[in-house]
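Hi F.,

I've been meaning to write this up properly since the lab meeting, where we talked about keeping a consistent format for the predictions we share between groups. The idea is simple: the sequence comes first, exactly as it goes in, then the C-alpha cells exactly as they come out, then a line or two of notes. No screenshots and no reformatting. I'm using this chain as the first example so we have something concrete to point to.
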Amino acid sequence: MRGLSVALVDPGTLAGRDVKAVLRERGFPAAHLHLLQTGDPSSGLLTEDDGEAAYVAALEPDSLSTCQIAFLCGPARDTTRFLSLRGSDGCLVIDLSGQRLKGAFVDALRGALPSPLPAGDHFLLRDPAATVLADAVAALETLRPVQAVTVAIDRPASDLGKDALDELFQQAIAVASFRSIPKDTLGTQSAFNIYSPADTDAFEARVAEDVRALLGRDLPIGVLSARASVFHGTTLRLEVRFEGDAPGPDALRSALLAAGRGFAEADVDGPAGILDAAGRDETLLIRSSSAGSASRLFLASDDLRRPGALLAVRIAEAAVAERGLLPDA
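Output, unedited:
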C-alpha cells in the first residue's frame, strides 16, 4: 500500500484517540499505522480498534526506526523516559505529551503554521489553553492594540488522562451514594469541587510564557486557574484591556469569528457551556461585553482537538510536503 509508516504511541490515551480520529478524518497518507505504548516496557497489550483486536507493542528505544512520523500521546513522565533512551532513528516525532525538555516548538498562531518548519526531528506543541488565548488576543488586536490580559482558566480532569476521568465518574457516584471516595489518581475529591492542585503555579507560568511566545511580545498576562469538576474541555474567562475605549460586543464577535481564526458561536438553544464545545475544532464564543477600556469574553474549547490533535496532524502534513517524505503525493 502506498503511503507512510506512522507510529501512534499510547493510542489508548485521550490525545491518542483524537489523533487517530483526525488522521482518518483528513485522509492522512498512512500505509501502516504502528500502535505502541510507553507503559510497561516488558510487554505489549491487546486492545480493540474499530471492533477488531489490535496489538499495541511495547515502545523500545529503536521502535521508531522503521517509521517516518510518530505521534507521542502518552504521559509526559513516560515520554521523557523513552526520549532519554531513544536512538538515532530518523523518524519525525510530533510530541503531544506535554514534556518540554527535548524538541522544538512549532508556534502556530491563528492556525497558521510557520514556513519552513523548525529544523530537527522532534516537534513540541504549546499548551492548549495558551494556544486558544493567544489566538483570541491576536484576533482582537486587529481592532486595536491590547495592553494587558487577565484570564481565569478552569482545568478539566482530562488533563490527567483517562484514569482521572474514570475516577471522577466514580467519585460522583460515591458522593451520591454516600460511599468512600476513590482518590488514587486525582489525589482529592474533585467531584462537585473546585480546588488548586499542586502544579497550579507551574501551569499558570507555562500558559503566560507560551502566550507571549506565540504573540512574539512581552504582553502583561495574569493567569488564575483551578481544577474544576469537569470531565473534558477548558473554559477561559478573560478581561482584555485596550489602548483607549474597548470595541463593542459586535466588533469583538466579528473579529473572533472572521474566517480562519478558529472561533464559532454556540448553535444551541438556551445557555451554552463547555459541553457544547466537546468534539469541535472551533473554540466557542459564549459571551462578550465591553465597558470603558476593557472587554470580557467567555470562551469554551475542546483542548484535545484544534490546539492538540488537529494541530499535530497538520504539522505532520506540512512536514510531509516540505521534506518530501511522500515524493509522489
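Notes:
The chain has two domains: 4-125+307-323, 129-303.
The mean pLDDT is 92.

If this format works for you, I'll send the rest the same way.

G.
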